[in-house]
């Protein structure tokens, strides 16, 4: 799963026994060599889909990590792009390696549950970060996203179809979540990272309650599942004008 440039098992163990913030500070120098980084294929597909909907003015990458999603925003936003994350280590790496030939890019350290922005963005994206939020936190999280969007603004993120029950992918995710729950029952501080906690039915309901109109766009680059449904969708939640 990890390249030779990625973290060792010992490093992963130390990170997993830390807080989420401290764990990502430690992981940051090698994060892009782990499966936790959003694959380029997903970033490119989302960029293409947003390009057909744009252009946009100002963009925000929520929980930006090392900045991979900021490159997507730089391709579809004309005014400016901001990356926000609560890990100082991840932001340090992002500042070093992200270069934009388009709009100016800035980096802000903040918690996604307490964003320090006025309604100044036209597009908010997020890639692979929602496993760090418990279901009960979604209303507050989506309220924060709404608070930083201008009227008519858009909140977009990719959503991979869940693996079929009984499949290898299903058991791998179930096993990972089980290990994390046992870890959090025995060790403090907790490390919230649950891949099966972000269920689309709950997400759609909470987005609607926050005032968004939700649409789904298939990302054709990933093809259909056996039942004909898309393997990957782009969730596009819009505010009224």
Automatic annotation (TrEMBL):
Methyltransferase domain mapped to chain residues: 60-153
CDD domains the record matches: AdoMet_MTases
One Gene Ontology term of the molecular function aspect: methyltransferase activity
GO biological process assignments: methylation
InterPro entries: Methyltransf_25 (IPR041698), SAM-dependent_MTases_sf (IPR029063)
Protein's UniProt keywords contain Phosphoprotein: no
Source species, domain of life: Bacteria
Keywords: Methyltransferase, Transferase
Protein known as: SAM-dependent methyltransferase
């Amino acid at each position: 799963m990890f390249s030779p440039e990625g973290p060792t098992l010992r490093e992963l163990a130390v990170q997993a026994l830390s807080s989420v913030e401290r764990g990502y500070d430690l992981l940051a120098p090698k994060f892009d060599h782990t499966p936790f980084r959003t694959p380029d294929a997903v970033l490119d597909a989302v960029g293409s889909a947003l390009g057909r909907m744009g252009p946009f003015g100002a963009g925000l990458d929520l929980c930006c990590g090392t900045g991979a999603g900021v490159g997507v925003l730089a391709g579809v936003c004309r005014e400016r792009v901001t990356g926000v994350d609560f890990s100082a280590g991840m932001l340090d790496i992002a500042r070093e390696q992200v270069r934009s030939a388009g709009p100016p890019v800035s980096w802000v350290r903040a918690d996604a549950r307490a964003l320090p922005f006025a309604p100044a963005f036209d597009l908010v994206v997020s890639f692979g970060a929602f496993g760090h939020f418990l279901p009960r936190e979604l209303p507050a999280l989506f309220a924060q996203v709404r608070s930083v969007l201008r009227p008519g603004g858009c909140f977009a993120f990719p959503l991979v179809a869940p693996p079929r029950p009984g499949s290898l992918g299903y058991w791998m995710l179930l096993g990972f979540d089980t290990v994390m729950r046992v870890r959090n029952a025995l060790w403090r501080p907790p490390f919230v990272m649950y891949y099966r906690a972000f269920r689309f039915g709950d997400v759609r309901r909470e987005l609607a309650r926050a005032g968004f109109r939700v649409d789904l766009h298939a990302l054709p680059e990933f093809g259909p599942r056996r039942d004909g449904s898309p393997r990957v969708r782009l969730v596009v939640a819009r505010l009224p004008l």
